[in-house]
Amino acid sequence: ANGLVLNGKKVLITAGPTHEAIDPVRFLGNRSSGTMGFELAKQAANLGAEVVLVSGPTNLNVEHSGINLVRVTTAQEMFDASHEHYESVDVAVCAAAVADYRPKHVAEEKLKKKDDDLQIELERNPDILFSLGKEKKHQFLVGFALETENELENAKGKLKRKNLDAIVLNSLKDDGAGFGGNTNKITFIDKNLDIKTFELKTKPDVASDIWKEIISRIHV
Ligand code: C5P
């Protein structure tokens, strides 16, 4: 055996956006690139973990013997794939930017434009992280929060409501943080409300900080 700290551990990571079909050619989505989730997956695998990476549509790819990349499109598919693997994992990190809503009816044919306005009725998608929190047994469960106001309070609320062990707060107020870019500024909050704020860093460095925080809490 080698000395890799996550040897023998199984990790589930969700990453990327989800796409919710409107018709055969159109969808609702968001600008998540998947970078944070893929980086978290790579580093966990490099630390010896067996990783299931459930990713929505992204341009990213990863070739690593320790990573089982499961590609999905919709929130419902991400929900199903995540639950399928949840039972067997030690750590789950939900880094995906899941669409909160999906079109209630998916048109079978491409919608034709009319002179009138168009209304699309939306229904709620399941909250994957909330559901994993409800079913949590032995897993160490980590979520993300992207807030624009009352950041700490909202993140703490989410930590509690979703029954998490830790949450990574990502402030959009910080220059260079958040979607698309290659840097992030995070605050790591655990369920004892132990709070640690980090400098603006590249996403690989942020992923490394996140794993250090998680590892220090699962090897107690
Ligand atoms: O409640 P909110 O969407 O702000 O929470 C963000 C966290 O919840 C992220 O970890 C995200 O991956 C997760 N989430 C989820 N399923 C959803 C919505 C959010 O897993 N439908």
From TrEMBL:
Pathway: Cofactor biosynthesis; coenzyme A biosynthesis; CoA from (R)-pantothenate: step 3/5; Cofactor biosynthesis; coenzyme A biosynthesis; CoA from (R)-pantothenate: step 2/5. Its EC number is 4.1.1.36, 6.3.2.5. One of its GO terms (cellular component) is phosphopantothenoylcysteine decarboxylase complex. It catalyses: (R)-4'-phosphopantothenate + L-cysteine + CTP = N-[(R)-4-phosphopantothenoyl]-L-cysteine + CMP + diphosphate + H(+); N-[(R)-4-phosphopantothenoyl]-L-cysteine + H(+) = (R)-4'-phosphopantetheine + CO2. Binds 1 FMN per subunit. Transmembrane segments: none annotated. Its cofactor is Mg(2+); FMN. Residues 6-215 form the DNA/pantothenate metabolism flavoprotein C-terminal domain. One of its GO terms (biological process) is pantothenate catabolic process. CTP binds at D100, K110, P126, D127, I128, L129, F144, K158, K162. One of its GO terms (molecular function) is metal ion binding. The keyword Metal-binding applies. Keywords: Decarboxylase, Flavoprotein, FMN, Ligase, Lyase, Magnesium, Metal-binding, Multifunctional enzyme. Residues 11-220 are annotated as: Phosphopantothenate--cysteine ligase. In the N-terminal section; belongs to the HFCD (homo-oligomeric flavin containing Cys decarboxylase) superfamily. In the C-terminal section; belongs to the PPC synthetase family. Catalyzes two steps in the biosynthesis of coenzyme A. In the first step cysteine is conjugated to 4'-phosphopantothenate to form 4-phosphopantothenoylcysteine, in the latter compound is decarboxylated to form 4'-phosphopantotheine. Catalyzes two sequential steps in the biosynthesis of coenzyme A. In the first step cysteine is conjugated to 4'-phosphopantothenate to form 4-phosphopantothenoylcysteine. In the second step the latter compound is decarboxylated to form 4'-phosphopantotheine. This is Coenzyme A biosynthesis bifunctional protein CoaBC. It comes from Flagellimonas eckloniae. The gene is coaBC. The chain holds residues 182 to 401 of 401 of the full protein.
